[in-house]
Write a structure and sequence with these properties.
This protein is of the alpha/beta class. The protein folds into two domains: 168 residues, P-loop containing nucleotide triphosphate hydrolases (Rossmann fold); 116 residues, Heat Shock Protein 90 (2-Layer Sandwich), CATH 3.30.565.10. 37% of the residues lie in helices and 23% in strands. The strands form three sheets. It has a five-stranded parallel β-sheet, sandwiched between helices. Strands 8-9-10-12-11 form a five-stranded antiparallel β-sheet, with helices on one face. Strands 6-7 form a two-stranded antiparallel ribbon. Helix 4 runs antiparallel to helix 6, helix 7 runs antiparallel to helix 8 and helix 8 packs antiparallel against helix 9. InterPro entries: Anti-sigma-factor_SerPK, HATPase_C_sf, HATPase_dom, MEDS_domain, RsbA-like_anti_sig.
């Protein structure tokens, strides 16, 4: 297609993150093929990770150029659950960054069509912050025929760019990552009167208190509950003299809340950001989030409260 600028003004020095929602096979081909061909002509590694139908269409159009792609992979082999998938994705990105000055990725997160995969929208939001300095163009493919309206709405809110017909343009619905996360976290309601509450000064005390609640609720998940709460208490005691730990059941969920009177979180996205390698990496919130089924944050300059939700 003449006049198409597949990556617009992207200069290869940082992240460009586009959400492309297509309704026909032709729309897909006309967007992705120029994107891949342009990258190959510039000597950039081009990676394609997509469902079977998308890969079949692209293979037909690209012909022998498929063999020049740095990756041409089935998307379903990537999904390991939100945190595990992002951890593997992060590892691959860092490895690629070590050998390539810039690259481009066309990826179809097929798991967004599944109930257990829709949390990926949160990681898409956080990517705009934690990968801002990585030099790649991420073209995220979303089939309007397969995805519910709520997922497509999240696509617009988590991608700074959309396709304008001949070049990428700013997406007007895009939101700051923290604002998006707050909108999709479980609603924050007052702690119920029946909750068990304790002010604790050591992680050991927290493990003992949370273990009792978890064993009474569902012993099979006691280890996960205790470990997740332990991580948050360690963080809380770094900024306050004590941590207030509470727990209660809400239907088939156990809720564990860890609160402190510290200065507030510097970044509410930390639970979704892969920790850096090495012993000094800040892993507490990441580990707690990965063990729980959901989480919510209430943070301000007078303190922070984090709730973890565990399902039976």
């Amino acid at each position: 297609m003449s006049g198409v600028r597949a990556t617009g003004d992207w200069d290869g020095t940082g992240l460009a993150h586009e959400g492309f929602a297509f309704g026909t096979d032709q729309e897909l081909v006309e967007r992705v093929v120029p994107f891949a061909v342009e990258g190959l002509s510039r000597g950039e590694p081009v990676l394609v990770v997509a469902g079977e139908r998308v890969r079949t269409l692209l293979a037909q159009e690209l012909g022998r150029d498929v063999g020049r792609l740095a990756a041409f992979t089935a998307a379903d082999t990537w999904w390991q659950g939100g945190h595990r998938t992002l951890h593997a994705y992060d590892r691959d990105l860092r490895a690629l960054h070590a050998v390539a000055p810039h690259w481009r990725l066309a990826a179809e997160p097929t798991w967004l069509a599944r109930d257990d995969g829709q949390e990926w929208s949160r990681f898409e939001a956080v990517a705009n912050r934690c990968y801002a300095s990585l030099p790649y163009y991420s073209l995220c493919l979303h089939d309007r025929r397969r995805l519910p309206a709520s997922v497509l709405d999240a696509v617009a809110r988590t991608h700074p760019l959309t396709w304008g017909g001949s070049a990428p343009v700013p997406e007007p619905a895009y939101e700051d990552p923290e604002r998006f996360l707050r909108s999709v976290h479980p609603a924050w309601s007052p702690r119920p009167a029946r909750a068990t509450v304790a002010a604790l000064t050591t992680p050991r005390e927290a493990r003992r208190a949370v273990s009792a609640a978890a064993l009474d609720w569902w012993p099979a998940r006691a280890g996960e509950v205790v470990q997740a709460a332990h991580e948050l208490v360690v963080n809380a005691l770094r900024v306050a003299a004590f941590a207030e730990v509470s727990s209660w059941t809400d239907g088939d969920r156990l809720v564990v809340e860890v609160a402190d009177s510290g200065p507030g979180l510097p970044d509410e996205t930390l639970g979704y950001v892969p920790p850096p390698d090495g012993p000094d990496g800040a892993r507490g919130m990441w580990l707690a989030w990965s063990l729980a089924d959901d989480a919510a944050v209430d943070s301000h300059p007078a303190g922070t409260a984090i709730r973890l939700f565990f399902h039976r």
